[in-house]
Amino acid sequence: MSSPAVRSLQSWAYRYKRTWRGSAVSSVLQPVLFLAAMGLGLGSLVNRGHTGALGGVRYIVFLAPALLAAAAMQTAVMESSWPVMAAVKWLKTYDAMLATPLRVRDLLAGHLTWIGMRVLMVCSIFLVVMALFGAIQSPEAALLIPVGLLTGLAFAAPVAGYAVTLERDSGLTALFRFGVIPMFLF
Amino acid sequence: MVEDNGGALIHARALTKRFGTFTAVDAVDFDVRRGESFGFLGPNGAGKSSTMRMIGCVSPVSEGTLRVLGMDPGTDGPKIRARLGVVPQEDTLDVELTVRENLLIYGRYFDLPRSVVRERADRLLEFVQLDHRANERVDPLSGGLKRRLTIARALVSEPELLLLDEPTTGLDPQARHAVWDRLYRLKQQGVTQVLTTHYMDEAEQLCDRLVVMDNGKIVAEGTPRDLIVRYSTREVLEVRLPAANATAALAHLDGAADRVEVLPDRVLLYTHDGEEALSAVHALGVQPESALVRRSTLEDVFLHLTGRTLVD
Question: Which residue in A138, B30, B210, B224 has its CB near the most CB atoms, within 10 A?
Answer without folding.
Answer: B210
